[in-house]
Design a protein that fits this description.
By secondary structure, the protein is of the alpha/beta class. It has nine helices and nine strands. The chain has a domain of 150 residues: Rossmann fold. The strands form two sheets. A five-stranded parallel sheet has the order 2-7-1-8-9, sandwiched between helices. Strands 4-3-6-5 form a four-stranded mixed sheet. Strand 5 and strand 6 form a beta hairpin.
Length: 218
């Protein structure tokens, strides 16, 4: 288990509070990106999950503002018109999902590091938003979790999915792999511990970058 104690990640060597970062993870189904996000929040002090928004109805046990911001289609439309979203998209041509600027910029301003996983389209939208927002660009780092196609097929098969669903996900994965060069960081997936150690190393590297930029602007 890597050392993720408060002193090593939350406080710098000089005793200063470590800078907040926004890690946006993407990768094919079966890459383990959701597990990595959940573990980062659970084990690294100061990390929280970005609460995204959706037009779908809450499922049993889901709490508005905790699991998602649940909006009616009309409410979602009004926020799109107001430019409130950093990114949004239709999912399965049924419901819309998006990330409010306030759900990202407010926690970062308060010193909270954030992690989320989105599809490659969502990452592109974040890049465009960062190009127009220097504060977002300062904190943002994109990470792709890569799994070799043969291994990915094995992982998906182990999840009990149908042959048709596996074939669909494999086609999506092949398209996603074409986007790797656009990402700031790449994790070649091996196993859960190795992948998490790699993500922690990226986190430290991004922290150092954000700290350097912050000092240069003082």
């Amino acid at each position: 288990m890597p050392d993720i104690g408060h002193s090593s990640l939350d406080i710098g060597h000089s005793g200063e509070i470590a800078p907040a970062v926004l890690l946006v993870l993407a990768g094919p189904a079966g890459s383990g990106k959701t597990t990595l996000c959940e573990r980062l929040v659970a084990e690294v002090p100061g990390f929280t999950r970005v609460v995204t928004s959706t037009t779908r109805a809450p499922r049993p046990g889901e709490v508005n503002g905790t699991h998602y911001h649940f909006f009616s289609p009309e409410e979602f439309d009004s926020r799109i018109a107001a430019g409130a979203f950093l990114e949004w998209a239709w999912v399965h041509q049924k419901n819309r999902y998006g990330t409010l600027a306030s759900s990202v910029l407010d926690p970062l301003a308060a010193g909270h590091s954030l992690v989320m996983n989105v599809d490659v389209q969502g990452v592109d939208n974040f890049r465009r938003a960062a190009a127009a927002n220097p504060e977002l660009a300062r904190h943002l780092a994109t990470v792709f979790i890569n799994v070799p196609i043969p291994e990915l097929r094995v992982r998906l098969g182990g999840r009990g999915e149908s042959d048709a669903e596996i074939a669909h996900r494999m086609q999506t994965a092949e398209r996603e792999l074409l986007e790797i060069a656009k990402f700031d960081h790449l994790i070649e997936s091996h196993d859960r511990e190795t992948d998490f150690s790699a993500l922690l190393a990226i986190y430290r590297e991004v922290q150092s970058r954000v700290a350097s930029i912050s000092k240069s602007t003082l």
